Amino acid sequence: MSPAVSLSISHLSLCKSQDFSKDTHLPKSTFRDNPCHKTPLDIKLSKRKLMSSTALGLIGRGLSMAQPAKAAEPGSPSESTSSRLSYSRFLQYLNEGAVRKVDLFENGTVAIAEVYNPTLERIQRVKVQLPGLPQELLRKMKEKNVDFAAYPMDFNWGLALLDFLANFGFPLLLLGSLFLSSSSSTNTPGGPNLPFGLGRSKAKFEMEPNTGVTFDDVAGVDEAKQDFQEIVQFLKTPEKFKAVGAKIPKGVLLVGPPGTGKTLLARAIAGEAGVPFFSLSGSEFIEMFVGVGASRVRDLFNKAKANSPCLVFIDEIDAVGRQRGTGIGGGNDEREQTLNQLLTEMDGFSGNSGVIVIAATNRPEILDSALLRPGRFDRQVSVGLPDIRGREQILKVHSNNKKLDKDVSLGVIATRTPGFSGADLANLMNEAAILAGRRGKDKITVKEIDDSIDRIVAGMEGTKMTDGKSKILVAYHEIGHAVCATLTPGHDPVQKVTLIPRGQARGLTWFLPGEDPELISKQQLFARIVGGLGGRAAEEVIFGESEITTGAAGDLQQITQIAKQMVTRFGMSEIGPWALTDPAIQSSDVVLRMLARNNMSEKLAADIDASVRNIIGSAYEVAKNHIRNNREAIDKLVEVLLEKETITGDEFRAILSEFTDTAMEKPDRTPILEMISV
Known about the structure:
CATH topology of the largest domain: Methane Monooxygenase Hydroxylase, Chain G, domain 1
Helix content: 40-55%
Structural class: alpha/beta
Strand content: 5-15%
Strand order of the largest sheet: 6-8-9-10-7-11
CATH architecture of the largest domain: Up-down Bundle
Shape: elongated
Largest sheet: 6 strands, mixed
Number of strands: 14
C-alpha cells in the first residue's frame, strides 16, 4: 500500500477511536478541518484531496531533496499546511517545548512552525500570524533552543510597477498635458505661452458676418445710424475719403442706457460692412490669473490685424476699462494690466491699422480718461431713449411680423409709452401677442396693448378687492389723484383710473403725457406734486385726519424727491439758482459717493429743508382746496368707479365737466414754450 493510502486510512481509523473535541492541546481550527465532522460524501472527497495533496507534497519534497542548495529552506507561506494556529496557542506550545522549528516570512509577520503533537505522535506544520516580531518571542525561542530563521520577501516587479503607476501616473499625465499644450501654444504664430489656451482670445469670429440685422432693422437712433453708415462707406469705398486726407476712426464708443439698441447697432454694422467681425464682452478678458487678460488682448488684435480691415466689437467695455487706481483697497492688477495692453494695441507704438474697435457701455463716467481720448475712441455716439417719433418707428419694426387689429394705432401707443427704450417696446409687443394668443384671438387688439403696458409699468394684475371700507377708501384716494391733477394747470391729462390691484398698488391712476418730458417747467413739477398729494388730501378731507392710511407712502416719496430736485438741482426756490449738491454725491457709482465730501454748511442745509417743506406744504393746501371745492363731483366719480372698477380718461372728464368747466380744458403748455424760447 502506498504511503498516501496508508496515511488516509490512519486518519480514518483515528476518527473512529478518538473524540477530538475533548483534546485541549489542539487548536479549534483542527475541529473545523477534521474529516470526522463531515458527511460520508465529504469524507470520500476528503480522501481524494488528501491522496492528491500528499502525493504532490512527496513529489515536491523529492524535488527539493534533489536540489542541495535549497534543502534547508522551507516552502513559502502560501504552501499548504496542516492547519492554522493562533498566536496565543503558539506561545503555549512554545512554553511546553513542543515547537521544534520556526521559519519567519514577510518581515516577521508570518511564521511556519513545526509543532510536535503528542496526541497524533507526530510533528505538524502550522501557520501562525504574528503581531510583528517582538523581542520577547525571540528570547523565548532562544531559551527553548528552537531552530528559527528569517527569509526576505520576494520582490515582485509587476506589483511594484502597478503601485508606482497608481501613485504617480495621474501627476505625470497632468504635467505631460501641460507641457504639450504649452508647446502647441508657443508654436502658434503670435500665440500666448499659457497652458490650456488660457491666453487665447474668446472672441467670436465671423469671416462673412451674417447677423440677419441691417440698418433697416434699427429705428429711433437716426444720429447713431448716420455715424455708422459713414464707417461702412469708408470700409467699402475708402478712396473717396482718402482723396481729401480723411482717416478712418480707430474706435467708436456707444454710450446710452440699457436697452436702447447699442448691441443692435453693432450687429447692423457687421451685417452691412461685409468685413471680418470679432465680437466679445469685456468680462471675457478677465481671469483670476494675472496676465491672462493682457495675453488675450494681444491674441485678439493679432488675429484682427491678420484679417484687416475688420471690426472688433467689445460689449460692456466698462468691465475692463474702468478708471485705474480707483476702488476700496487699491486697484485690480489683472484688470489694469488688461487695460494697459488694450490702450497699447489701440494706439501704441506700432498702431492697429485697419482695425476698427466698436465698444458699448452704459457707464461712461467710470471709464479711464486715456481710453476715451481721440486716437483710441475718436467718436462717442450717444444712443439715448427714443422720442415719440422714434418710438413709433421702433413699434413699426417690431410689429412687422404681428397681426394687429385695425383699431390699434402705433402713434397712440408711442404717446402712452414715454421713457420706454427699444427693448421695452419690443417686450411690449411680444407681451401683447402672448396675451392675444392666451385669450384665443387671432389679432392683437387695443385691450391687449393696454394690459401689456399696465403689466410692464405696474406689474401683474392682482386679485380684485371685495366691496367694503378698504375698497371705498382706495376709490376716493385714486379719484383724489385724478381730480387734483386735472384741476391743476400744467399736469398731464388722465388716461384711466382703476381699482384693479397691480404689483404693490391697490389702485392706480394713469396719466397720458402730452409730449416727451425733455424740458419740464416749474409749473409742471409743482402740478405733479399737487397730483401726487391728491390721494392723501382726499383721505384727510373726506374721512378725517385720524383715518389717513399708509397708502400714500409711495406718493410721498415721489413728491419729496421732486421737491428736493427743484431746490438743489434746478434752482426753483427762494434760495436761488444754485447747484447745491456735489455731482459725485448724485452719481450712481457707490465708490464715488463714499469718497465724495459734502461741503454744504449747516445754515444752507437748513434753508434747503425749509424750501422743500414750503413747496410740499403749498402743494398740499392746493390739493385739499380742490377736494373741498369739488366734493359733489368726487362722490359721483367714486360711485361710478366702484361700479365699473375702471373708468377711462374721457369718461372721467365727462363726469367732472358736469360740475366744473376746467376739466375739459387742455393743459396749459405755454410755460414750456416760453422755457424753450428763452
